[in-house]
Amino acid sequence: MNLAVGVSNLILGAIYTCYGIMTLVDLKRGWRTRGFSHFGAAWVAMAFTCGPHHLEHGLHILYSGTSAGALDFAAVAVGFPAGAIWFLLRVEALAGGAGDRFVRGTPAWVAALPYLSGVYLAALVIESVLLLDNGESHLSPRMTPNILLLGIYFLIGYYLIRAQLGTRSQAGGWSLSGLTLGIVFPTCGLMHIFFTEYAAVGQYGIDGVGLAIDWLAVPASIYFVWVVRALYLGTITDWNESAGRAPSQLAAA
Amino acid sequence: MTVTSIWPGQTQGGHRPATEDTVAVRFVAGVRLLLVVTAAAVGSYLPGLSSRKADLMLLIGLGWVPWAMVVLFASEGVGSRLALFGGPVGDLALLTAVELLHPSAAVPVLIGYLVVVVFAVYTMERALAGGIGAAAVVLSWLSQIWIAHSHRVSAAVLVAFTAAVVAMVSLLERTAVLRSRVDSRYERLQTKAETIVANVADAIVVTDAEGRITQCNPAAGRVLGRPHHQLVGQTCALALTLHIDSRAIDCSQGCGLMALAGAADAADVEVWRWAREGVRQPLLASATEVADDDASQEVLHSIRDITRLKQAEEAKTLFLATATHELKTPLTVINGFAETLQVHPDMAPEDRAAALAAISSRGRELAAIIDRLLMSSRIEAGRVSVSLGPVVVAPLAEERGVTFARATDRPVTVLAPEELPFAHANANALITVIDHLLDNAAKYSPPGSPLQIEVKAEGDLVTVAVTDHGVGMDEEQARHCFDRFWQAESTDVRRFGGAGIGLYIVRSLVEAMGASVSVRSAPGQGSTFTIALATEGATVSGSQSAGAETLTEAEATAGRGEPTSIREFMRQIGVPERTAP
Predict the structure, then answer these.
(1) Order of strands across the sheet with B279-291?
(2) pLDDT tens for each residue of A205-239
(3) What is the pLDDT, as a whole number, of residue B166?
(4) What is the pLDDT of residue B81?
(5) Which of B550, B554, B548 has its CA nearest to residue B577?
(6) Is B182 helix (H, G, I), strand (E, B) or coil?
């Protein structure tokens, strides 16, 4: 389990950091013609905090003698494939491809996701309660960023899933990229809260580097939520603007 | 895939631009959030915290950070008032909690609070509110710090005092915001009014009680033929020199134009002025009294140049006369021969055949005239549209030349290279255009004079030039020859016939094909009319460009080599596409 959690975290860390670099490249390419992109910058901020967090956690698991928790494994087991698919789609988009797959209708595996998620979450909550009940746990200010990140990542996941539901009703299907990201964010939130739980019972340690990274992730993720919300409300200008061509024309085409 | 988000309050298809207030509040809320996160992060690093202090740090982190986040989100649009007032109130509540838990910890928090409020009033750019607010808050904090250490006043008094200060600052700020909005609204309305006056086509001239021009817009300069700033200061009578019928309008007893309008019980009066020696400029003018800002009465003159309207009316009158004449001539011949055939049923067969041939020929001529009139009418009504595609111009021009030569017994030379690119045109429209140009060339050339059609490729264009050796035109005539109902001179009707719509049809059809037509001519040396058509190769890319709307935005941007990842990703997560304002 240690190897699986450690390696998965290292790969996820590399993926998110790579994605940060890719977005930075994209941002630089479009800056001259389209101006600054809050959305791009928010993703860079997110990726450069999520990536190092996973790298740091993976290194601790593999080389510092930290024993990986079962809850941590459960979270990474779901988050890793979703994150990998999402990342490959992003690579495809950067290379000029579609960067997405349209899932027509609601196939059985998509329809089953809410039920599977419910069972998954219920199992994790029970396991969490048992963990905290068995051990001598205590809260510390060092856990603050991880608790905040649980709420923020769940909020992002909620927004993404709500947008995907809107897409489904409008387009008669799902965006694979949106779906995978809707899975990635809540599992990221779970990873942070499980990390906190294991820290509370003394299984994980919160060192200065990890604390700094997690505290940086808080404003970065809040910035991301703020940007996405402002984009939906139309109160900021970003690259979703099409100069001179109305969206209805595109839709009609 | 079209994505429509289901976010509440979301605007579709366009921006709801952030106002100055929103930007300022957004900035302050962002600064507050960063300060709070920094404070919480610093607190979490402190080693060896007692249980009470650790709880305090948790409270700051888990209570204050979400609150600052809510305030930041509220700064967008609808919640800006919450962000304005809720931020400081939330800060106050948390500050009170911190003071109650650990009074000495309030000092760094208070410093952060000072920074936030100073930023708030600074970004609002309201000096009065900023100064009073900052001074009041500093006084409040100093009092709180002093009171907290001396324990002379209860925490409830502290809270009440700080709340009063925050309320006062908020009230001042709100007043300043409202005042600023009124000012900016006034400025916007003034700018709007000035823009309208500056851009209307009618001349606007304002005169004072003495009849002296105090204001006028650029259109006044255009209508009156002088730079508009030179008109200011002159008397109305001298600058405008308006006439009605054959006399100058008398402005010695007040505004003559206003008196005329009043007498005629009309909003405007048709007048004229000398545009230049011997040329009358017809005008439609009105005048009305307006009150100046010092309550003195001024007169606002609105003057419209109706020269073109008059010219159009004259052209239509002329057209009616010429069209009647054009229609009547073949009809007279047809009627004459028909009556002859009726009166002389025993006419010799060769004479009967000649009479029938004349009736047939004049009938075709009549049909051609009616066709032109109908096409002119359709063009004017905007009902002519042509579908474009590849057209082989050379054989088409050759065929029209040969047909025309046979019909008119006039030599027509067609010059065309062996290899020519396809033109992006409509074959039927091009045939009509060439026929009209040949008709026009023949009409203004001596009988038997040769005509020439030359087709060639010039860069991305295929040109068709029709040349005659007829009467030609001077520069002024060449400039107007494509106008509807225009003819070189009034006597043309008698000399050459026609109703002045042939070249108008040519220009309209050529423009409908996205091409251009030009003329090179000199009096007595004939004319050359040249049509320049785009080649199909050049326009293929154009049509592909137009067809790009059938591509997805991602494909379109990929074609331009622009970044795709961020935009595409925004679309995937349901961020709506918007149009630039």
Answers:
(1) B213-216, B203-207, B297-305, B279-291, B269-276, B243-244, B247-248
(2) 888 888 999 999 999 999 998 888 888 777 787 88
(3) 60
(4) 60
(5) B554
(6) helix
Q: How far apart are CA B76 and CA B67, in angstroms?
A: 15
Q: Do residues B173 and B133 lie in contact, with contact meaning Cβ atoms separated by under 8 Å? A: yes
Nearest CA in chain A to B39: A215
Q: In angstroms, rounded to a whole number, what is the distance separating the alpha carbons of residues B204 and B212?
A: 14
pLDDT band at B1 (very low <50, low <70, confident <90, very high): very low
Integer CA distances (angstroms), B61 to A116, B46, B54, B138, B275, in order = 33, 14, 11, 25, 80
3-state class percentages of chain A: helix first, strand second, coil last, to nearest 5: 80, 5, 20
Among residues of chain B, what percentage have pLDDT more than 70?
A: 66
Extract the tokens encoding B11: 């605007």
Residue B322: what are its φ and ψ, rounded to 5°? -70, -40
Number of residues that this document lists for chain A: 253
For chain B positions 40-69, those within 8 Å of chain A (CB to CB) are 40-41, 43-46, 49, 54, 57-58, 61-62, 65-66, 69
- DSSP at B235: B
Chain A nearest-CA residue for B571: A240
Q: What is the mean pLDDT of residues B110-121?
A: 54
> Cα angle at B266 between B251 and B305, to 5 degrees?
70
The DSSP element (H or E) to which B301 belongs, if any, is strand B297-305
Q: What are phi and psi of B519, to 5 degrees?
A: -135, 140
Angle at alpha carbon of residue B542, lines to B541 and B548, rounded to 5°: 85
- Other beta carbons within 10 angstroms of residue A198's beta carbon come to 22
Among B75, B84, B80, B71, smallest CA distance to B36 is for: B71
Name the A residues in 194-253 with CB < 8 Å from any B CB: 208, 211-212, 215, 218-219, 222, 225-226, 228-251, 253
> Both tokens of residue A172?
């008669």
Q: A178 to chain B: which residues are within 8 Å by CB?
A: 572-574
Query: Position of tokens 């079962």?
Result: A70
Beta-bridge mates of residue B449 = none
Taking only the tens place, the pLDDT of each residue in B435-462 is: 888 888 888 888 888 899 999 988 888 9
Q: A206's torsion region: left (phi>0), alpha (psi -120 to 50) or beta?
A: beta
**A40 within 8 A of A239, measured Cβ to Cβ:** yes
From B574's Cα to the closest Cα of chain A, the distance in A is 5
Give the phi and the psi of residue A226 in degrees, each rounded to 5: -60, -45
Angle B243-B247-B251 (CA atoms, 0-180°, nearest 5)?
Answer: 65
Q: Which of B81, B284, B100 is CA-nearest to residue B174?
A: B81
Task: Taking the CA atoms of B455, B456, B462 and B464 in sequence, report the sign of the dihedral they define.
Answer: negative
Half-sphere exposure of residue B368: CA atoms within 13 angstroms, side-chain side = 15
Q: Is A188 helix (H, G, I), strand (E, B) or coil?
A: helix
pLDDT at B319 over 90: no
| Distance in angstroms (rounded) separating the CA atoms of residues B562 and B47 | 50
Say yes or no for a CB contact (<8 Å) between B566 and A37: yes
Tokens 């994605």 correspond to A19
Quick one: A34 exposed, middle or buried, by C-beta within 10 A (0-12, 13-18, 19+)? buried
Q: Which residues of A touch B13 (CB under 8 A)?
A: 246-248
What pLDDT score does B383 carry?
65
The model's pTM is 0.49
Exposure of B279 by Cβ count < 10 A (0-12 exposed, 13-18 middle, 19+ buried)? Answer: exposed
Structure letter (DSSP) for residue B549 = G
For A192, counting Cβ atoms within 10 Å of its Cβ (0-12 exposed, 13-18 middle, 19+ buried), the class is buried
Residue with tokens 């100093």: B142
